[in-house]
Batch of 2 targets.
Target 1
Amino acid sequence: MAERLHVARTARAARTQRRGDWRRERLLEAAGELVCARPLPAVTYAAICARAGVPASSAYHFYRDLDALFRALLLSGREGFDTALMKPLRASQKRSWQAVVEALVGRAAHYNRTHPIAARLAIGGHTPPQLKRLDRDADRVRAGLALAALESLFVVPRMRYKRQVAFAATEIVDAVFTTSMLEAGRLTSAYVTLAKRAVVGFLGQYFGARLPRRRQL
């Protein structure tokens, strides 16, 4: 009898876990669908729950509010973005520090174009301040990765605020991308080109026109 009770309880727990996993995933899917379909300020917690078919009283156990849902969506795309950004560069993308920077900006643009949910949340122009801070924290990490990539290829000048300069460069790209999203609803080629020129011009004030190539061992 005890063994049958244990088996029954285990089966119930497994069903509950599966139902919980489904609801959690469905809430994220519904949130993403609405983020793509509506202006971000028009997306509500109640609308997400209704679209997901999950009562708000149950949804609360997975995502306590709209901010938690948006945060989960934003975080879910972070690893993929970083991987896409830092994959090995082609020889033509390493011919100068400017070419490296332009390649990274191009990759960021491609990722945002192919991941509209992440783009609307991060650079859509209506991101709540607490989520924008989360995105900026991620940008700070990406700035460090980009700086490391440059320093592996070129001798970057010594400067006191090197990491701050790299972070400011990422924020320039972010601002141009956001302007494109606000004005055109998407990342246009013209704005991507503008982002490349703006960030190269900014970094040129610190790097100069040419950096010595680092000897590869």
Target 2
Amino acid sequence: MKEFELKMQGKIKRLTNKTFKFDKRVKDGWFSAVYFLKTREIVKDALPNNMVTMQFFQKENAVLCGTDEAIALIHTFADHPEELDIYSLKDGDKISPYETVLTITGPYQNFGFLEGIIDGILSRRTSVATNVYNVVKAARASGRQKPIIFMGDRDDHFTQQAGDGYAAYIGGSTAQATHAMNEWWGKEGMGTMPHALIQMFKGDVVAAARAYHEKFPEDDLVALVDYNNDVITDSLKVAREFGEKLKGVRIDTSRTLVDQYFFRNPELMGTFDPRGVNPELVFALRRALDDEGFNHVKIVVSGGFNEKRIREFEEQNVPVDIYGVGSSLLKINIGFTGDNVLLNGEPEAKKGRRFRPNPRLEKAEYIPQQE
């Protein structure tokens, strides 16, 4: 077992290959493309004394993530990893198109079969980190940073949660929906009430909030208020019931519904799209809460939010305090490529590719874990 130093702006001191919980079948090539496995066997027999440099890059402006996981993978499954020269940027670094983020130098047969797995790690983690970073940036367009809750638990296979949560943390989200999402960076999941809790109390939001508060009195009380599609009425009910104890209300109205507020105020209709969580509904909710002295109650919105939609809200100064974001953060839109670019110290690569030295790279060192 090896332990790896992580210099991530002082946020996390160490991540280990135990942290990443790799599938042991990686060693057997189970997750590697078969042509890499065949190449390994050919090279072992025909060119055993080779020395290659493999470099990794992508084609966007992005927030890098996955390097520590990739380094841990190499040290766990490569043959004689202590003999490899590995240079890397750090998780959280801003990277440019075609910038080299990782190089590995050593005998091809010792590590080459890991190429595709490393590509996949870097692609997914960097995509999520970059998506979150862009959403976090959009959420401060009005001049005040609004927290982003990472709510991606229902949008992908559950086995991805730990890595996605870590990548989201690298991108700037420090509130996440499950314990697994927080596993690699040392916190616990957070959350209040789902629609299921209100359903159990037959749509009585106050009763559901009371039961929640009695069971978890140390938690900040944030009531979900769209169950009956009447967010202002239900928000005022819970605010009147709990007063200062109510810390916030969350709106999660479906994009196919129009809240009852607009049916009570038909003169507002016709100049905007009234469906779902829209700016006019949030403005109206803020006014209603403030008019009754509940200025302290924060407004949380969720349901279909992405970078574009958050930026639109912020540009209109919509009084949102916290955004909950899910599926848009998990879109994999950044692909990494690994190329062999040096052979025995001399340039040798396919046409269109070449060795791209990067002075920002740092030697990746590891420390044997003390038993």
